[in-house]
Structures are given as C-alpha cells and as structure tokens.
Amino acid sequence: MSGHSKWSKIKRKKGANDQKKGVLFTKLGKNISVAAKNGKDPEMNPGLRTAIDQARAASMPKENIEKAVLKGAGELPGVVYEEVLFECYAAGGIAMIIECVTDNTNRTVAEVRSTLTRAGSTLGSSGSVLYMFEQKGVVRVAKDDMGAKTMDDLEMISIDNGAEDIQSEDEGITLVTGRGNLNSLVSALEEAGIGISFAGLEYVTNNKIEVTESDAQKVEELIEQLEELDDVNSVFTNLK
C-alpha cells in the first residue's frame, strides 16, 4: 500500500497546495486540540509535539497553533472535539479502523457510512474489528534526519529504550513500542540528535493478510476517499 502508507501521508501534509490548506489546517488544528488534552507542554507530550511539528511543516500560522493548544487544554472557549472510532471490513475481507476527530458525531457517522456504502462496505459493530489490533506507540524517522547516527546506532538506541519492532522502509524507519513507553523512546532519540517525523499512538496488527491486486486497489481507493473527509484523522488496516 505504498500509495497510502503513513510516510506518504506525512509527505502530503507537507506538500499540500493552497486550495487544500484550509481543510488541512482544520484537521491539524483538531489534532493539536485533541493531543493537548493530555497536556499542553509539547516537551512532555510527544503526541502534541508531533501535531505541532506537522502543523508548522504545513505552514499553519503560529496564532492558529497556539489557539488550538489552548482550546484543547480547556483554557479557551470553543468547539470541543472528541475522538471516535469506526470499524468495518473492506474489499477482500480487509479489516479497517477509521479514526475520527469530530465535534458532531452524528454528522461524522453519516459521512463515513455514505463513503463506505459507495465502496460496497458497511459499518461494523463495536469490537468487530478492533480485537485484531493493538494500540501502540509509533515513531517514524526519515533516513535523512538521522544526523551522524547510523542504522546500527538507531537500532541500539531504540532497543535499549523499549522498541518492540523496527521496520526499515524506503522512506525511513518505523519504530513500534508499548503505548506507555512512547515518551521515553522519543526523548532518547532526540537526545541522540535523531530527528522525528512522527510520534504518536496508532492501531497496529500482526495479522496482516494479502488480497488480490484488484481488492488491494479498492482498499487504497477507499482509504483515499475516507481521508478526504474533514473528520477522518487516520485509517488503519491489516492489508499486507
């Protein structure tokens, strides 16, 4: 799924054109506000730090970022966002978790259901897919952000600081750790001078499956359609 890897999503955020920046800024602001609920200090909250870094990379105005942080921390009045999960099966029996950030659950349900229906999928009941996944701490390091460190250095630092899995890809390295260990892993990497492209919680599965090329294409198209919805933050699947 190279077209919809988490790396390509990072690149799309950085390279959004002016026409799409309004929608992107709204999504980034929501992510910042939700992350700030766990603490408004980005030095102590890697999820917030990543959300702010992504907003800066997309040229989101500083004032907008600061307001989003204060709203999430409850220090400014405004819309209250909440995280909502949807579960479904896509083409080829691929399990899918759709993570949304919304101020109107009814609207979000309607939009997600409509998108799934057009793709021949339906919303599943709570727990129908989630049991296949586990929420983990995930860190992504671009290969050109490793400074003077080698891959061996990165692996040693990561393992010493709780990394459970290390995946080397064309764009960079993905590290997976326990959700409670994310902060310490991020701190260790930063202290070593290694740049971080993303740090946060994601739904990870070890039970990935292969499907036909046709079904894989349908899944990719559905992910793209879902990610175009304002309230959809991330989509996770067990597609190999």
TrEMBL record:
Positions of the TACO1/YebC-like N-terminal domain: 5-75
Alphabetical UniProt keywords: Cytoplasm, DNA-binding, Transcription, Transcription regulation
A GO term for molecular function: DNA binding
Domain TACO1/YebC-like second and third: 81-239
Subcellular location per the Swiss-Prot or TrEMBL entry: Cytoplasm
CC terms in the record's Gene Ontology section: cytosol
Stated name of the protein: Probable transcriptional regulatory protein COW24_04065
Family: Belongs to the TACO1 family.
Source organism of the structure: Candidatus Kerfeldbacteria bacterium CG15_BIG_FIL_POST_REV_8_21_14_020_45_12
UniProt-listed GO biological process terms: regulation of DNA-templated transcription
Gene3D superfamilies: 1.10.10.200, 3.30.70.980
Alphabetical list of InterPro entries matching this protein: Integrase-like_N, TACO1_YebC-like_2nd/3rd_dom, TACO1_YebC_N, Transcrip_reg_TACO1-like, Transcrip_reg_TACO1-like_dom3, YebC-like
The keyword Phosphoprotein appears for this protein: no
Domain of life: Bacteria
